[in-house]
Structure formats: C-alpha cells, structure tokens
Amino acid sequence: MGGERTFPCCGSKPQVSFLQNKESSPQSDDLLCATCLSTWEFRRVVCANCGEERPTKLGYFHSPEFEHVRIEACDSCLHCIKGVDLTRLGHAEALVDDMLRTPTLIVEGEQSTPTLEGVRAWAEAMPNARLLLISNSGHFPQVERPDLFFPSVERFLRGAWPTGAVAGRTGAVR
C-alpha cells in the first residue's frame, strides 16, 4: 500500500521526522505517520515528499533557541517537514514537541467533576491551546449540549477560535 515516502501499512504521509541513536541504521531518520502515528525508517538527506536527493535542492533551517528542532525543506517540490533531533536533548519527544505547537481546542463542561482542574492545567500547559467551558454540562458536552458543542467545534475546524475559547486556566463559560 505505502512506499518509501509513505507509511507502508496505511499509505499516509509523515507528520514529522526524527533522528535518534540506533546501531541498526545510523544513516537513517525515522518518519512518524500523520494518520496512525506509526514510525518507519527513511534515508537521510532525502526529501520525504518527492524523493529529491541532490544536496543543493535540500535545505535545513533551525533556530539557536531550539537547536534540536529544524525545518527540512525541498526546493524541488517546495515541501517542508519538521525534524526533531533526539540525539541532542534526551528529553525531546518528536510527537509531543510537534503537537504542543498545534492549535488545540479543549472543550469541557463547566460542571465536569473531577476532571475540570486537570483540564484547566492541560490548557495552561499547551502554548497554542484554548479552553472552552460549556454551560449546564458535565463531562460529555457533545451529548449534554450539542447545540453549543458542535457549532464551536465546526468554527474551530474552519480555522477560527470559537466565541468564549480562552487561553490559560480561566476558560470562559459559553
């Protein structure tokens, strides 16, 4: 189903590449499937999107602030992928590092117990997350308040934060 540049089982493209210490294939990165979160080995210094191998067409960009993270770019297909070097920082985790920067809408019922404090802490810890508390709802706002839940999620999926979604621990009640 898949090929070298897609996951062999589901055929999906990678979400992130990462380098780790391994004796079996020191000349390879690993790619993380965007769909099923499985990993597979991939040759280094090759575009994960089009297979470009010419070094003059491949670029790498990074910030001194985050030396373990880089953007791997290809001039041939204009595709880029985030790369995480797990050999530089022992605590770096490729998937977590990538997901923490993804816009995340956390929806919870204002009457949810005992999870509400944990949800607030989660929203505060994620740099690009917003918390939306649904009024007159417990832990299942999608069932208890579908009139508020589904329009909010649809707005988020269309690229906008829903009304009442706020950063940090406060969480507005809608």
Word description of this protein:
The structure is a single chain. The strands form 2 sheets. Strands 3-2-1-6-5-4 form a 6-stranded mixed sheet. The chain has helices at residues 94-99, 116-125, 141-144, 146-157; strands spanning 14-19, 28-33, 39-43, 58-63, 66-74, 80-85, 104-109, 129-134, 172-173. Helix content is 18%, strand content 30%. Strand 7 (104-109), helix 2 (116-125) and strand 8 form a beta-alpha-beta unit. The protein is of the alpha/beta class and 174 residues long.
Given helix and strand content, the structural type is alpha/beta
**What's the alpha carbon Rg, rounded to whole Å?**
20 Å
Helix content: 10-25%
Strand content: 25-35%
Q: What best-fitting shape do the alpha-carbon axes yield?
A: elongated
Instruction: State the distance separating the first and last CA atoms.
Output: 45 Å
Poorly predicted spans: none
Number of helices: 4
Mean pLDDT over the residues: 80
Order of strands, widest sheet = 3-2-1-6-5-4
Give the topology string: H per helix, E per strand. Answer: EEEEEEHEHEHHE
- Let me know the largest β-sheet: 6 strands, mixed
**Tally of strands:** 9
